[in-house]
Design a protein that fits this description.
The structure is a homodimer. Chain A has helices spanning 84-96, 101-117, 130-140, 157-174, 193-206, 218-228, 232-238, 256-264, 273-278, 286-291, 311-326, 334-348, 382-389, 416-431, and strands at residues 3-7, 10-11, 24-29, 32-38, 50-53, 57-61, 63-68, 120-125, 143-146, 182-183, 209-214, 246-250, 268-271, 295-298, 366-370, 395-400, 403-407, 410-411. By secondary structure, chain A is α/β, with parallel strands linked by helices. Chain A folds into two domains: 3-61 and 363-411, Roll (Urease, subunit C, domain 1); 63-348, Metal-dependent hydrolases (TIM Barrel, Alpha-Beta Barrel). In chain A, the strands form four sheets. The first copy, chain A, has a six-stranded mixed beta sheet, with helices on one face. In chain A, strands 10-11-12-13-14 form a five-stranded parallel beta sheet. The longest helix of chain A has 18 residues, at 157-174. The model of chain A has no long low-confidence stretch (mean pLDDT 97). Chains A and B meet through helix 2, helix 9, helix 11, helix 13 and helix 14 of A and helix 2, helix 9, helix 11, helix 13 and helix 14 of B.
Chain lengths: 433, 433
């Protein structure tokens, strides 16, 4: 039962309407938050096993990257500034055919280190070789929701689903405290009705959630209407998908009726502004979704379409892009943007009872950000500074499930140089003929 | 005649169509680049006074922040997510009334350190107390184009202009190698015709450029048409402004006729995507401007509307926002975005012959970026990695005018802690009653 105290930081619990607490203290026992409040109010019963001195810092809930394809770090910068179709068909997919399990392991190791360095303590991963990716997440000390990826149009789709169900059932049995498996049908347009129905059955039987891309491009919506007579969201609803917990990535092109459905069915929408800008997909109507009470989280998407896994940058992009899109500087203010990256993402993944805020009884996933850099002075408002001025490199300590995985900007659990060396070698091989 | 060699970095000279040179070498003599190419091709005549070992890094021209109000670092995060009018009238302007010369000195010191840390070696500054700001830029070791700011609607406008002309004339006499003064009439809508004509006369007489905000908001353009019967760009042209070199910040709302004028008159447009998004001003038509041959640079605007002075982030925002705006992922690719931040900005400031590329005969302003971080692996394409994945904290050495002002992420010339302490104290005072 290891105990940890984080001392002296300004506390941003990210609980609804909570104000920053100066000189705060977070106490952790066996991974659980047992106190989060003013230092002055804390009654210490015994010295903790470990202490993080965090004066001059702000402590906030670990950021939650609610949609990524983590091992795509291997393809970072491999192909950019291209139309979606040739990008996928000529560059990404042929290269992904070459991926081995070990490639995915090292790609996820790299992505995990990159995220932990950026204060991201949990990620929702849809990708091939999910076993290897899960092994990497466990080794890296990060929290993950692995789902594999079901490409329903492949002749092997049935076998993929069987294997996915075996994978999630195995993980459920293992009950690793940081691994929360899901099922990952790729998208409505890549999965036939019967497969999606089977996915719902599997998810219901195992009591797990579904991770899926939805309405990322206008083309997808137009095609769905032509082919199925309804939008992708309506189709998923008709197929019963929303009877189980669903997190729906992108949701760029939504009708008002879609928004009603997403609200009523408590679907978690994952906004990916960086990817949606880079691939020119469009703008997810986040202000409208929030106004209607839809759960909205934030994701980076894969590093091939971003090109990093920096969720603080994503929060900034969210705040900026909606102001521009609505031509209103009051839209999606800094506290709202930071809520998307923490509480919102946790809720979108169905983990809102476990992480996403710093509250007693939740797991201790914490990002501690050093405020001493010149670009954060003079320090008028800490939330504004985090969203509009801070960068991932300001994160100084990262805690996952009560374990200090980064201390003083040094990873405590993994050999970072080995990981980078492996990824460079594998990246070279993948880029080759 | 101090000599410097930067050894082993991949070289991005940013000369038109130049490819990256692996294992490059930059030789500097008395601030001037005497060699920039492959290490293998360099003939060393004598050992240099100073060496920067830069293996595993990329060396590129120091970034040029072509529009900012540097001392507004003091107001970073002071007021965000507000409509432009109350933001300016209730928050920014009343606070600026309290600014002393020493406030501006320390605000510019902080902004300079923030920029040097981010690989920004030159900035174009329009702000009050320009003498103090210039003193800070000189002390910080950065290159600057100070202009002061002429608010033509004030009763003191004539006195301000006289003082500005005295200021620029004084600097011309001083001929500091890193200080390039300009005249700074705030904007067409804040300056009457007769004042703008006097500014042109002054600039022509002294052989200097004009720095001005142009067509930042739709309201400004509508008002200009109502009041003057023409757009702001047309009005400035009629007043003879474009007879002298002009850098025009923002240029968000332009007619096709405006774009023709900007191209013909060789006006340097300064794109400020972060500020234009945050204040919900709109999108400067950069792809159209580039297609027409207009000179385009990149700026952060002030830290009160950004909220940092990170030009690499600005290059990323530029690449992203135009893809989204045109719904075309091929628009403003990574090399173009990086060109805006270097060559483009230098040209927009009329300094294209002196800085903006790493070429023999130019001043040695160099940013050296460490590529060893996880978020830059595996390293498929260095320009993509810089624009889409890198962050300011990856800059490891910064050279201005041949002087190493940051080495191994440590400032060599200034006491950073003192600067931050001063800015925090002054920030608190300014935020007070």
């Amino acid at each position: 039962m290891a105990t940890l105290e984080i001392r002296g930081a300004t506390l941003l619990t990210m609980a609804e309407d909570a104000e920053p607490t100066p000189d705060g203290l977070i106490a952790v026992d066996d991974g659980l938050i047992t106190y989060a409040g003013a230092s002055a109010g804390y009654v210490r019963r015994s010295e903790p096993d470990e202490i993080l001195e965090a004066g001059g810092c702000v402590a906030l809930p670990g950021l939650v990257n609610a949609h990524t394809h983590c091992a795509m770090t291997l393809l970072r910068g491999f192909a950019d500034d291209m139309d979606l179709k040739p990008w996928l068909e000529e560059m990404v997919w042929p290269t992904e055919m070459k991926l081995t399990e070990e490639d995915v392991y090292w790609g996820v190791m790299l992505g995990s280190v990159e995220m932990l360095r950026a204060g991201v303590t949990c990620f929702n991963d849809m990708y091939h070789h999910a076993e290897a990716g899960t092994r990497a997440a466990i080794d890296a000390g990060i929290r993950a929701c692995p789902s594999g990826v079901l490409l329903g149009f492949l002749p092997t789709a049935e076998a993929m689903l069987a294997r996915a169900l075996e994978f999630t059932a195995g993980l459920a049995k293992q009950a690793h405290p940081r691994i929360h498996p899901m099922l990952g049908p790729h998208a409505p347009y890549t999965c036939p009705d019967h497969l999606l129905r089977r996915v719902v059955e599997g998810a219901a039987a195992q009591g797990i959630a579904i991770h899926i891309h939805v309405a990322e491009t206008k083309h997808e919506v137009d095609e769905s209407i032509a082919e199925h007579g309804c939008t992708p969201v309506e189709r998923l609803d008709r197929l019963g998908l929303f009877e189980v917990p669903v997190n729906a990535a992108h949701c760029v092109w939504l009708s008002d009726q879609d928004i009603e459905l997403l609200a009523e069915r408590r679907v978690g929408v994952v906004h990916c502004p960086g990817s949606n800008m880079k691939l020119a997909s469009g703008v997810c109507p986040v202000p409208k979704l929030l106004a209607r009470g839809v759960i909205v989280g934030l994701g980076t998407d894969g590093a091939a379409s971003n090109n990093n896994l920096d969720l603080l940058e994503e929060a900034r992009l969210a705040a900026l892009v909606h102001k521009l899109h609505d031509l209103d500087p009051k839209v999606l203010n800094a506290p709202q943007a930071l809520a998307l990256a923490t509480r919102g993402s946790a809720q979108a993944l169905g983990l809102g009872g476990m992480i996403g805020t710093l509250e007693v009884g939740k797991r201790a996933d914490v990002a501690i950000v050093d405020l001493s850099a010149p670009h954060l002075a003079p320090g008028h408002h800490v939330v504004s500074d985090l969203v509009y001025a801070a960068r991932a490199s300001d994160v100084v300590h990262t805690v996952v499930d009560g374990v200090v995985v980064m201390r003083d900007r040094k990873m405590t659990h993994v050999d970072e140089e080995e990981i980078i060396r492996e990824v460079r070698e594998r990246g070279r091989r993948l880029a080759g003929p």
